[in-house]
Amino acid sequence: MSQGGPGHSARGEGGTPVAHGGDLDQARALFPGALEPWIDLSTGINPVPYPCPPLDSSLFQRLPSAADHAALRETAARAYGAPTAAGIVPAPGTQILIETLPRLMAPCDVAVVGPTYAEHAAAWGRAGHTVRPVSDIAGVGDARVAVVVNPNNPDGRVRPAQALLALAETLQARGGFLVVDEAFADFEPVESVCPQVGPGLVVLRSFGKTFGLAGLRLGFAVADSERAAALAAALGPWAVSGPALAIGRAALADRPWLAANAAARAGDAARLDRMIARAGGTLIGGTRLFRTAAFPDGPALFRRLGEAGIYVRRFAERPSQLRFGLPADKGEWCRLSRMLR
Amino acid sequence: MSQGGPGHSARGEGGTPVAHGGDLDQARALFPGALEPWIDLSTGINPVPYPCPPLDSSLFQRLPSAADHAALRETAARAYGAPTAAGIVPAPGTQILIETLPRLMAPCDVAVVGPTYAEHAAAWGRAGHTVRPVSDIAGVGDARVAVVVNPNNPDGRVRPAQALLALAETLQARGGFLVVDEAFADFEPVESVCPQVGPGLVVLRSFGKTFGLAGLRLGFAVADSERAAALAAALGPWAVSGPALAIGRAALADRPWLAANAAARAGDAARLDRMIARAGGTLIGGTRLFRTAAFPDGPALFRRLGEAGIYVRRFAERPSQLRFGLPADKGEWCRLSRMLR
Questions:
Q1: Cys-Cys with B244: which of A110, B29, B218, B232 at CB 3.0–4.6 Å?
Q2: B-chain residues within 8 Å CB-CB of A240?
């Protein structure tokens, strides 16, 4: 039987495994002779993590309290511009929210605007819904639920808040709702719909990507109070760890860090774009944490990079495209630069 | 609206909040003038935690890999005597498994053998099942699902594996299963049913209580591979944090620590029993991590302890009873001893 570990387990409709970046064991299996240490550019995780405050041992030892939870919800509501802390649901990462949302709704028609992060369609499919991939908001048709990733992964496409709010209203009128996954919104000049959450709208916000702390497992749903309560009940009262509650609270309140890091990552993204162009790539789009480009021979470049110990994200359905995360330091930038020329 | 934070959110059937220990903010609200620092004896969390190995920063930064997950599953399978690692589902605490199990089954009749940990009945009720509290295995009747906590919390009652396995077989024959919550089994001379898991049996194992690391959020389901896969899919591939995967693996493999700590906690429990008897209490039962006793005036003792800054667990339905966790150090033992005489 398949199991719930990453990589070999996340399965979509019909049991097809969903491919993910971020697992260097997969890279090593593909390229057993590659140069070590590997450079992992297969994710959109910030390579310059938030400097964690010292963690008191009590955070590991005692059960998180209601006050710990409430404090994080307040901080997250301010950071995301959400109308109330009651609409914030902290979770051990957004993935579990992506899994849980579909299980709180009777089977219906779901439109996923894509191509996008594959776990959305897979999770709705696993929960028994009828999933239809559509290429734009206009294609949502009479679906009851729609999913939009904004900015989109992997192409970085941004949709205006106005269009999303109009869609949410339409879906709400037929008893459904819109899921807006703002996993990569923190560093971008996109207009978040968090201030407008209501019964027709659920927003997902990732913590680990922006703050470079994907192993901590923290993410949020921003919703109306009723749906927030239903989601929170499905997770139970202590799903988020003590360290995640404490670090999340410190990091989300640190606006100067966010601003400085957003500027630095914009510089990184521009530098990566220049390298991609030099290597013959045509930029498709991205965010400050990843760039996606088409290459005359994508599979060959993926192989050359892999053999050199550089793991990027490829897409089975679009073999010419590769997605590059940001190198972490001078050494990684140099190794990548030598390959992209 | 109620929210998912601990204390003010976990709700049972009909929306009644489920009372829990471990939240000193509640203690402070009850006894605003109490002596600080509080001694929290309201939980069954080991006060002598496992000494965490140094945590590499990469555990916080990168997404946990399939290999990290597989290694923890292998270690847990050995620690619990489970037949295969494929039947092990790591989760961010057992509470989320208690919430998730009922949502994977169509509404049915569920018997909870109690009085016991209140979240079981509450979670099955929240998921739409018909829950019947019963006082013994014989009362399970024609329910499809039954829940037994072994050893039981708060009275420490132990049920023989043979009786549980026979019940599991009966339930399986009618398309149901038995949940055995072995949250407090690690330190006890009870016969675990983990080696016998099959389609009629799901075992829950807590990590944070035994190892004194409740804030880390780690727990396990032990099941047949098929149910394990369904549970794992509901949690998604990255619900457990990098630090929890690493610490869990080290701690579960450390049999000498477990043996030494079990012996030390047995000494603590005996010492607590002597104090309880001196204070006029009649021991009802317990485990090495908590003792439950009846007192001539339970509410008065709860109040006297609270005013002295010692928070124990009381039970709305059984006001004469109090449950004591273990003091952490000499200072806490002395303060408790002065009150129990």
A1: B218
A2: 92, 217
